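User: My advisor, Dr. K., asked me to get a structural model of this assembly before our group meeting. I'm new to this, so sorry if the format is off. These are the inputs:
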Amino acid sequence: MIKTKIIAIAVLLMTLMGSAFAAVKVDQAAPNFSLANTKGEQINLADYQGKYVILEWTNHLCPYVQKHYDSDNIPSMQRKYTADNIVWLSIISSAPGKQGHIDSATSDELTASRNAAPTQVLFDPEGEVGKLYGAKTTPHMYIIDPQGTLRYAGGIDSIKSAKIADIEKADNYVEQAMAALLSGKAVNNKLTPPYGCSVKYKS
Amino acid sequence: MGSSCLAAAYKQMIVFMNRLNIVLFLCALWLPSSFVYGQSTAKGEHIEVALVAEYQQLTPGQTNWLGVLLTPETHWHTYWQNPGDSGEAPSVTWQASTELEFGDIQWPIPHQIPVAHLVNYGYEGQVLLMVPVDLAKGSELAQQVDIQVALSWLVCKEDCIPGWADLSITLPVANEREKSAAASLFTQTREQLPNKDSISAKFEVTDNYLTVAYQPPFQAQWSLLPLRSDVAQHNQKQQFVSEGGVNNQVIALSDYFIAGAQQLDFLLTDGTVGYYLSASLNDGQVAASHSVIILMLMAFIGGLILNIMPCVLPVLSFKALAIGHNEMTISQKLGYGLGVLVCFNLFASVIIVLKSSGEAIGWGFHMQEPAVIAFLAFLFVFIALILMDIAPAGARLAGFGQALVSGNSFSSQFFTGVLAVVVASPCTAPFMAAALGVALVSPAATTYLIFTALALGFALPLSLLFISSRFAKWLPKPGPWMNTFKQLLVFPMLATVAWLVWVYLGQTSAMAQLGLLMSLVGFALAIWLSRQFSGIYVYLALCLAIVLMGWSLLSSGTATSPMADKSDLAFSPQKLAQLRDSEQVVLVNMTADWCITCKVNEHVAFNTELVQAAFEQEQVHYLVGDWTNKNDTILSYLTQYQRSGVPLYVVYAGNHYEQVLPQILTPETVVEAINLAKKELHND
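Assistant: The format is fine. Below is the predicted structure of the whole assembly, which you can bring to the meeting.
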């Protein structure tokens, strides 16, 4: 009986933990959030209602992020989509003292030096938004449609490596999903396991 | 003296041998370098990597072992084949100057490495990734082989650094082999590999959970590490309940799990030993067909027995004597069987129509319904009365359609079959009633199958006679024994009535049972009276019998008040509707014996004192629907909730509130749901 109770309590804890980290679900409403940008302004996801929004979890010191920045893969995507009136939010969930935690000046510098073009770089030092979205790795990508529905969550492409040479050979899931969405088709791979460094959360 | 001298010499020799061993070992250490082609080791940031072989030679006809040795700095780690929430498994791409067959990496049992709230699987400290290598046929001629491996890895503390290296070694091909300096590493690593035996298991996906049922090799704190990264939430604690040597393990499902997998592979480990476990999707395809076959077999035997029943045997004997005068065509031979078959299936159709129309008006044929039990009790009493010649039997029918059956034409054969069924009905009733009972609670397809089996059994003996008269000697001769046999059959019928009345008590009350018994006696009296009188009194008596039966059935309907048999009631839509109409809180539990998740929930939630106490409360009812043998009633209930399988848990408060519970339960969720439903009940 006691054993049963222990198991029961453990299952309960597990359920609670599960709900605490319950990630968002594709094809369901993307939860709203509010984070500071490099100018110190609070940016709401809801501000971009009516536009496609791409979320990118990033950490400039992570080799997997470097793979996609040094190769100009992510910056070129940012330039292409933002020119098309699509919103690109780069989110940094690195906690203070951990890898990738940077101030606004460094962030602006990185954007300039890497020829990047995100709509905003947002700071999530408490990791709340990262946990809300279940972001596990850098990079970890999400696409939200103009109605506020999450349409894609997962890796940036299909080859889990830190090698720049693999980018050409890989299927870019974000580009595939955006192409499908923009032509009114269903997204084929709307949920893929992300790969990269772990997000450097506070806890 | 001589002996001590010998002993000293021996000691010297031992010392010398030991020295020789050390020298040999040192040679062995040096030897590979003399064969090295390119680099067998490389240094990355925070890690050293090396390509090593267990033996200094490659041996044809034997499995040779190569290995990639990863030696990260202290506190740095590398990854398992499933790195977990982040990270990357090392990868190897082999090339050789001669055709070699490289096997898969033999992954040692990994450790769980927490990173903030995420979890990785990997190895802290040195790890050897062993790979079996076979020389391909025809490559024995090569003198030596150059082997290259393109290795990539990720080494992490909290921050991660990827690395790449091309390593190579050259090994001579030889039939004799000697251990290399790294051989002991291979020996050590083999002890860290999972067991060779793999375990098969079943899995289910429910809500956000995966449940896996397996037989553990022994009792321990087992974890299931999926080989793919998109199966489980690695940071969630896994729980299992053990029942009869089977562990039912609950695992939080990965956000990236794509439904539709038929098979999932895991490593079952308690941290020190491991077993590969291959789980296939649990689709619950069990037992159902098996039990239908048994029922059909019983029906077939029942059909055979029907032939020697007192009402049937004379007809058949008459028919059997008549054959053999002239040759019959195939259609004539089969006419009788066809007649029987059609007749039985017509009967099955009538039952199905009655049943579905009965259900349409909300009167289900379930053994759980006391009215059905009462009806069956009346039916069996009536059969007993027939067998005792108290009730009017089908004697009058015997003359019916005499013209139709005489002769040997197809139609006469066909109608003989029909008539045999009709005429035999008083005697077949006991068997038919049993078949009827099964049919009433079975899906339509099963009903047809059972009645077809009954018909085949019934038609077989005479059909055989028609085909060959040699079978005639197998037929028992009619005689007075038939009457004795008929009377004997009264007692099994009465025994069935006794059993039914006992079942009825369990569903109602002692008073209701007394009422039923008195009605049965009155019913028998009325039937008996109808034989004693003539004219209008016959009808009066029969009316009395019908009124008694009708009253009994109606009163047993009301006897199943929510008061009776409070907990663990078998589910029926009628029962549920009744309880909801009378403003009760109802928890419906749809389960099946083969459902792993259901078992976990029963163990963890329903069987706890907390939940049992909640069920004991006033106005709270617990209904269990068993879907072990799938049936349409429960299926239609499940489809109401867009489900195609179990488990399903729904809590109702009267007719205005319902809540579907999650598929993984805790005692608290159940109790909370019941309390909430009670509140809803009192709010309105």
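One thing worth pointing out at the meeting: Chain B touches chain A through 46 residues (CB under 8 Å).

User: Perfect, thanks a lot.
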